[in-house]
Amino acid sequence: MPTLTLARQNHPLAETHRQLDLIDRGKPFELSLGKPLRATGIGVLQVNVGKLCNQTCAHCHVDAGPDRREIMSAETAEQCLDVLERHDIPTLDITGGAPEMCPQFRRLVTRGHQLGRHVIDRCNLTILLAPGYTDLPEFLAAHRVEIVASLPCYLMENVDKQRGTGVFDKSIESLKRLNAVGYGRELPLTLVYNPVGASLPPDQEKLEGAYREQLRSRFGIEFTRLFTIANMPISRFLEDLVRNDKLEIYMDKLIGAYNPVAAEGVMCRTMLSVGWDGRLFDCDFNQMLELELGSGLPRNISEFDLDALKNRRIVTRQHCYGCTAGAGSSCGGSLVG
């Protein structure tokens, strides 16, 4: 099997093409779908503000870390806010990297809240304890931001294996701080589970019950809900699959578990993804694979055209099976009850 060595800066297109060559095996996604996949509107503007992060997680599809320098400019952030001001897009979903490390993060949150949008912060939890960011719980609470926080297990061993030594204890401390300002009670606090290794997530409802019992009984922590999200065969997780000779097994598992019901509800049908440099994509996964929107469509947030984008044909490849396997997977958790 070909080896995969991921560049830590700028991701040359040759490396992106190598990733696509590795995962494009077996049954083409649109053959399973039976028709082209099309958007049904734009209910979520998901803005990836950059790849800078205080962590280097093993499953990260962004390949984010402390050494990354891709970061959203003030001009691009203003263009995103201008789109929200001119169009009735209900949700602003801010991701990264650690999105809070982008200098434009607080501006996006503040204006998004002022515009009456539902603002989501995809938070890794440990950033809330980092110097310069310890006031974030109060800031986020004041703007009634929904926090979607990664906690891939309620056991320290599994979390630290996937996200780094000491991350579990820091995550628990951060969750207690969030509870103290109202999160998990009157403010929405969503936790995110990712499997460890080449497996699919278990039943979301049952796992939420286990999380709730464990976190409440052991730490007194409350949260609103749990999302289960499958690991995508992209970037670091793809590298790990190749290294352990499990890529073919994992792709076969995803393709074999294709669920047409989940396919109808995939997130790209109601979402538009904006890159740190303003480029437009169907989803964050396509963004990391440099799969820009289809021919004839706007390429940058500065060219936003709702009529052209709301019913667009979505660009798909084999990694899309990661969203349609079993109960399905999306930024909003399982797609099938």
| Main sheet characteristics | 8 strands, mixed
Quaternary state reads single chain
What sequence of helices (H) and strands (E) makes up the elements?
A: HHEHEHEHEHHEHEHHHEEHHH
What strand order characterises the main sheet?
Answer: 6-5-4-3-2-1-7-8
Mean pLDDT: 90
Proportion of helical residues: 25-40%
Low-confidence stretches: 1-12
Termini separation? 37 Å
How many H/I helical runs?
A: 14
Shape: globular
Please give the CATH architecture. Alpha-Beta Barrel
The CATH topology name reads TIM Barrel
What is the CATH class designation?
Answer: Alpha Beta
Write the CATH homologous superfamily: Aldolase class I
β-strand amount: 5-15%
Count of discrete structural domains: 1
Q: Count the beta strands.
A: 8
What class would the helix/strand composition place it in? alpha/beta
Please state the CA-atom Rg, rounded to the nearest Å: 19 Å
